[in-house]
Amino acid sequence: MLIQIADLKDQVERERDLDGLGHAEHVRDDIVTELLNEIGGAEIHLDPRDNHHALMQARSLARQARGIADAAQQRADELTVLTAVARGAREERRRPPVC
Asked: CA–CA separation, 13 vs 49, rounded Å?
């Protein structure tokens, strides 16, 4: 089991570079959990960087979401102005001519 865990280490790191794509980390964690259960049942987190990596991904997504929200709000404001201008022009055309 220890050899399998060691063999999966490099693959886990490569997959982490691909933003968590792949399954090596889950396989490794399952093997470690099985091993720990066999030797006493203690549970530990193998890699404290997992939480840091998840945090960095969440922050990145939040920044991207804020950028999308800002762009959407700007577009909504532009459409509000364009709608008001079009409405004003339409009302101006509907007014009877001044004699």
From this structure: 11
User: Dihedral angle at the C-alpha atoms of 73, 76, 80, 81, nearest 10 degrees?
Assistant: 70
Tell me the C-alpha distance between 52 and 60, whole Å. Answer: 12
Predicted local distance difference test score (pLDDT) of residue 41: 55
Check: pTM over 0.70? Answer yes or no. Answer: no
**How far apart (Å, rounded) are the C-alpha atoms in residues 36 and 45?**
11
> 50-73: per-residue pLDDT in tens?
677 777 787 888 888 888 998 999
Q: Token pair 């259960």 is at which residue?
A: 37
**E strands in the chain:** none
**C-alpha span between 25 and 45 (Å, rounded):** 12
